[in-house]
Amino acid sequence: MIDLSPLVAAPGASSLPYSDPAFAGRPLVLHAARPRQWHPATPVLLVHHGVGRNGRDYRDYWLRHVDAANLLAIAIEFPEASFPQYLCYNFGNLHAAGGMANPRRQWTFGIGTRLFEQLREQGITSTDRYGLFGHSAGGQFVHRMLSFGYRDRIAVAVSANAGTYAMPDLSTAWPWGLGVTEVSTTDLRALLAFPLTIMAGTEDTKTTGRFFPGGPKSMRQGPTRHARAHAYLRSGQQAAARLSVALAWRLVDVPDVGHDGRLMSDAAAPLIADALGRDADR
């Protein structure tokens, strides 16, 4: 087991090579932002970067908030060399490049949950649940992760400016829906009842650039990332009505912000701090 204590040895920024037990020989990097008044009861936030695999930058986006928000932020960096392309990251490694399904133990969606358990085992946190934030490709990772469970230890989750969505629809095939996966109607009800926050920059409307998902199946979800976020919420509303369940999702539009990880982190910080604070008091 890797000693995680360097992440909280001193206030401010730190980084630590890390290996998940399910992915031996495929290194990750943990980038932590520790508040000055940290102690084991301090809430934990796990952060998922975008397609640039720039975990250090996302840690720094949150470094400016950890004291006011009273949280320990840890950005999990998935290096391209270890977890190549979108299959391993955005889509959670559910399938290999040839389309063969991987066993659940090899899904990258479980990495954060196992990291949190190690933080608990090593006494770095005494909290029962953690917060989750993902932007862009990280926003894809977060909402797809929640779609397959992994929710028991999560107090608050924010998916920001995702490029595409796994709609809560069992008739639409993965990864644009949840069809042809192990997700059942019962699982879908639990997903819709989870308090997911979808964040969308109102100016996230740029459709040029090599990282914008512009294929036909992606474009069916909407012409821009902002439009797709609203389509995801509508799909959740429709699914909740069909299944007679109260939808716990909400969508927060962030005015005058485009595809910007720093500004979306700034907008998410007070929402996450409030939710983690209330969770600590429960």
Structural class: alpha/beta
Radius of gyration: 18 Å
Into which percentage range does the β-strand content fall? Answer: 15-25%
Number of helices: 9
CATH fold type:
Rossmann fold
Q: Rough shape?
A: globular
Short note summarizing the structure:
This protein has 282 residues and is α/β, with parallel strands linked by helices.
Supply database-style keywords:
8-stranded mixed sheet; 17% strand; alpha/beta; 282 residues; Rossmann fold
Description:
The protein starts with 11 loop residues before the first strand and ends with a helix. The longest helix has 21 residues, at 261-281. Helices cover 32% and strands 17% of the residues. Helix 1 crosses helix 9 and helix 6 packs across helix 8 (225-243). By secondary structure, it is of the alpha/beta class. Helix 5 links the parallel strand 5 (130-135) and strand 6 (154-160). It has an 8-stranded mixed sheet, sandwiched between helices. It has a single domain, classed as Rossmann fold (3-Layer(aba) Sandwich).
Q: What is the topology?
A:
Blueprint: E1 12-18, E2 28-34, E3 44-48, H1 55-63, H2 66-69, E4 72-77, H3 85-88, H4 111-121, E5 130-135, H5 137-147, E6 154-160, H6 185-192, E7 196-201, H7 216-219, H8 225-243, E8 250-254, H9 261-281
Parallel strand pairs: 3-4, 3-5, 5-6, 6-7, 7-8
Antiparallel strand pairs: 1-2, 2-4
